[in-house]
Specification:
It is a single chain. With about 800 residues, this protein is of the alpha+beta class. About 30% of the residues lie in helices and about 25% in strands. The chain has a nine-stranded antiparallel beta sheet. Strands 2-3-4-5-10-15-14 form a seven-stranded antiparallel beta sheet. A hairpin with a 3-residue loop joins strand 30 and strand 31. The protein is globular and about 85 Å long.
Length: about 800
């Protein structure tokens, strides 16, 4: 019988009164999320992931809950009829209506003929909860502590019952490909626990020997037919005591140590792997891990994970100021309007941790809307836990390059390759064009068609947006082999689609796209509301980005001269950006009235970030117009403030070098738009959500915005501390990356750089701006030199591979 005679509430009060009772690590190590009570809901549990397997650990005492996930646990299936055919002739007829300003008829026909037919789109799904129901000896509960150590990706729960100490450690190992939890007690024969799985899917669970084995399918009719088959195993290895299979449960009695190992496999695309048997693979993985001690499993895990995470460090001077407080209390302070620079730094590193946990080179899929940390909420929404290519999937990876995790990008590139194959059929069937395209929503089954409505789905340059990531990867890594083998073929094929798809507007002779949308927005024209038009500004931004990337690639690789000429000609025919009557950047080619001024999407401002088509230096008038657009949106009644749109605001204000407003957005994201476990949320009331729903993108895009406030590198120019708020006036970072193959460290005090080091992985030439450049000592490979300072305060730098530039007071 469970007999914990003291409530956790009393323990919490004692812990707050006597900080000395808290583990010393809580004050000494700032890269930990820690709590003084177990999670009572999903939004308080802590995530682990190995790139394929995921777990949410609640840290319970009487009952521990571990939410299990796997990245390929998807409903849906391939659908060859996802897009109704249209073809070039009918497309031209629709375009004629738009060119004649007959937007009513054009939108009506486009809506009826160009929407896709997502019969089996599917969604990612959670597996369910592993429950550990403990029975303890008589005694009071004390000294409870639950933490996630980001430096080792280890979840630890410690507490006492009476005078017996209990410790649980949990890891998600990439090398051994299992979730492993080790439970030990300070006294022999003190662990008695019942294990049961509560699946959320169609699954049969049986206990056999020392394992829980579950099999089933991921059918989920809410989002169409189909779903993967799966088999999972949870094995228990014990020291001391006994273990017994009892129906659907495992009963462990009076053990001193317990090691739990979990794996699950699906038949997702297993036909592409010769001889792959998902059930046998699951069995073999558990058998192999069972032969190792937890110490060995953990050491291997740490040796694999830590070199990735430790590449980057970030401090804002007082990281430890509030680290004596549990994270839920720190979060509550920020939500109430207080500042916590240490939490800002922890949030940044948490985003890197989440990306490492979710997207490794051997991951079968990239990060979906929630990664695989699935709360069983998004999958029930109309928008599902899928791949949204109109910002969310892109934002998931914004931190990859600047955050020194380029290999975490690789699953996304594999996904784009696969999508391009399916997207070539869509390009032909819908538009009568060569090359490839994809639209707003996608899945692992090759869905590249328009969504079920053109209002949010008719966005053919979504393919261009996601594909621009391969060019960004090259910009940062300067890996010419990657450019040749991976990036350029994808860029070129997408550019070929755009060249074939675009048409000359007879009214002005500009080269335009359309009909398409500015996701997921609409406008008013002649008293009616429409979504589709010719050449919305976001299309202009994305077409220019793809054409420019392709053109630069041809020059770097010395290939395709004729194709390069066609790109130059096309670029010369693109319309310019325009400023609307309200002073903002015009969202559509014509200056239409916004139907929903409070809308969360601002896709036309991709020109400001992540791209650099609008900048303070090159286009100050347009930069000011971008500011007006942003401030009009934020000031609109019922502005749709979500995790990803607020992360956008951090990035936008960083580019506009407005530290006060950028930092206010940091606080808004970390407070009202996050939860106790620092997961960012799409809040209740927006996009049909009845409650806060976790979304991965706010964490990673918010971290990218923090990096952008500290370091900007675009247009062959690197600038330090371009948007530093007062709250971060003292600090340091190491290992952040800039375009051109440059890695940087920096430290500053009272907002002035004290020292910085730049390291070049390849030959590089760029301008480097640091405030008051003449006051510093400049050294290249320890040799002092006197730089020539440009009129804008920058210094022209030339580096060879392996060079180190040091600038110090």
């Amino acid at each position: 019988m469970r007999n914990i005679t003291r409530s956790l509430g009393l323990i919490i009060g004692a812990a707050l009164l006597f900080s000395g009772c808290l583990p010393s690590e809580a004050t000494e190590d700032t890269m930990k999320l820690w709590y003084d009570k177990p999670a009572d809901k999903w939004m308080k549990s802590l995530p682990l992931g190995n790139g394929r397997l995921g777990a949410m650990v609640y840290g319970g005492v009487e009952t521990e809950t571990i939410g299990l996930n796997e990245s390929t646990m998807w409903s849906g299936e391939y659908d060859e009829h996802q897009q109704r055919p249209l073809g070039r002739e009918k497309l031209d007829q629709i375009r004629k209506l738009f060119f004649e300003d007959n937007l009513a008829e054009g939108n009506h026909i486009a809506g009826n003929t160009m929407a896709g037919s997502p019969h089996s789109a599917g969604t990612h799904l959670p597996i369910g909860d592993l429950k550990l129901n403990f029975t303890y000896p008589e005694g009071e509960l004390s000294d409870y502590h639950h933490e996630l150590d980001l430096t080792t990706a280890t979840n630890t729960v410690t507490y006492k019952v009476g005078d017996t100490e209990y410790t649980r450690q949990c890891i998600a190992s990439n090398p051994d490909d299992v979730i492993a939890m080790h439970i030990k007690a300070s006294r022999p024969e003190s662990i008695t626990v019942e294990l049961e799985l509560q699946p959320l899917r169609n699954a049969e669970v049986v206990a056999s020997g020392n394992q829980l084995i579950y099999t089933g399918n991921a059918e989920f009719e809410k989002h169409g037919r189909g779903g993967v088959l799966f088999e999972g195993r949870i094995a228990a290895e014990i020291k001391g005591g006994t273990i017994k299979a009892d129906g659907k449960k495992l009963l462990i009695d009076k053990a001193t140590e317990v090691l739990l190992l979990s794996d699950v496999r699906t038949n997702y695309k297993n036909t592409t792997f010769a001889g792959y048997d998902y059930q046998q693979k699951c069995k073999e993985t558990i058998e192999a891990a069972s032969k190792k001690s937890f110490k060995t499993l953990r050491n291997t895990h740490v040796e694999d994970y830590t070199p990735l995470f430790s590449r980057v460090a970030l401090s804002f001077g007082d990281n430890g100021k509030f680290s004596h407080l549990p994270n839920d209390q720190r979060w509550a302070r920020v939500k109430a309007g207080e500042s916590d620079p240490g939490l800002d730094a922890l949030f940044f590193q948490y985003a890197r941790y989440l990306l490492i946990s979710s997207s490794r080179p051997n991951s079968p899929l990239p990060v979906a809307l929630q990664g695989f940390f699935n709360d069983n909420l998004a999958c029930h929404m109309g928008w599902t836990n899928d791949y949204h290519l109109d910002i969310n999937t892109e934002q998931n990876y914004w931190i990859a390059n600047v955050g020194n995790l380029p290999e975490c990008h690789l699953p996304l590139f594999d996904y784009i390759k696969d999508l391009s194959v399916h997207g070539s059929k869509i390009a032909q069937d819908l538009y009568g064009c060569k090359g490839w395209t994809a639209h707003t929503t996608s899945n692992p089954w090759g869905y590249a068609a328009v969504s079920g409505s053109i209002l949010w789905g008719l966005f053919p340059t979504a393919s261009s947006w996601i594909t621009s990531h391969v060019w960004t990867q090259y910009e940062y890594t300067q890996d010419k082999n990657f450019l040749k083998e991976t990036a350029y073929p994808l860029l070129k094929s997408n550019a070929e689609f755009l060249l074939d798809y675009m048409v000359t507007d007879p009214r002005n002779n500009y080269l335009v796209t359309g009909p398409s949308i500015s996701p997921e927005n609409s406008f008013r024209y002649q008293g009616q509301e429409f979504c589709a038009s010719m050449m919305p500004t976001c299309d202009r931004v994305l077409v220019y980005e793809i054409f420019s990337a392709c053109l630069k690639s041809t020059e770097i690789l010395n290939v395709d001269a004729a194709f390069a000429d066609s790109l130059r000609t096309a670029i010369s025919k693109l319309p310019p950006f325009r400023i609307s009557a309200n002073g903002g950047v015009q969202e559509w080619f014509e200056d239409y009235e916004e139907a929903h001024p409070n809308h969360r999407h601002t896709t036309h401002l991709l020109s400001l970030y992540p791209y650099s088509q609008i900048t303070l230096n090159k286009t100050p008038e347009l930069a000011n117009a971008a500011r007006i657009t942003i401030e009009r949106r934020l000031a609109a009644k019922d502005w749709e403030d979500t995790e990803w749109s607020r992360a956008n605001m951090i990035c936008f204000y960083a580019r506009l070098k407005d530290p006060i407003k950028a930092y206010n957005s940091v606080k808004q994201l970390l407070g009202p738009l996050s939860r106790e476990n620092m997961f960012t949320v799409s809040p209740a009331g927006i996009a049909g959500a009845g409650e806060d729903i976790f979304a991965f993108d706010g964490n990673t895009a918010g971290a990218a915005g923090i990096a952008e406030m500290l370091l900007q590198g675009y247009d062959n120019r690197i600038e330090l501390l371009p948007c530093l708020p007062e709250e971060w006036k003292n600090g340091s970072f190491k290992g952040l990356c800039a375009r051109g193959g440059i890695e940087l460290d920096a430290s500053w005090k009272n907002a002035q750089i004290e020292q910085t080091e730049l390291r070049a992985s390849v030959p590089a030439e760029f301008s480097f701006r640091i405030s008051n450049a003449s006051a510093y000592n400049w050294k290249m490979n320890k040799k002092t030199f006197t730089p020539e300072i440009n009129a804008d305060g920058s210094v022209q730098i030339s580096m060879n591979a392996g060079d180190k530039l040091t600038v110090s007071l």
